[in-house]
Here is the input.
Amino acid sequence: EIKHIYIYIYITIQTVCKIMGKKAVLVGCNYPSWDINLHGCVNDVFAMRKVLMGHYGFLEEDIKVLIDTDDQYPNPEAAIICKALKDLIFQSKPGDVLFFHYSGHGVGVEPEAGDVDETGQDECIFTSDGKLIYGMFPQNMTIITCSHFFLSPNV
Here is the structure.
């Protein structure tokens, strides 16, 4: 069962240090060559970039954009998204603010042992190359998520 998923994750390294930097990875999957294509996810990415820059002081060069509708940007395939997230996390310093935004399809999978919530499933990112991403964040991260799910009308 494929669901449309918006994930906004605000991550901070747990520390008492002042904010030293702001970095973001923004992912939009419209799936233009799939039967399950979407039409607003790339727009969501550019709207989020505008908000981060205009209201939260992020610099354009510190925002990595991954979309599947313009060859000027990296395609949001699983390996590329994972590398961007790993770079975001492991190149950060204590006190940095890290932001991850995903707009595209998502699916639910069986949760890891001891990781059960009210849905009974772990939510995953469904990448432009048809792979799933979940469970990537180290335990010393504070993660705040805001998700909106609804069934895609094309499923």
Notes: The CA atoms of residues 36 and 63 lie 27 Å apart.
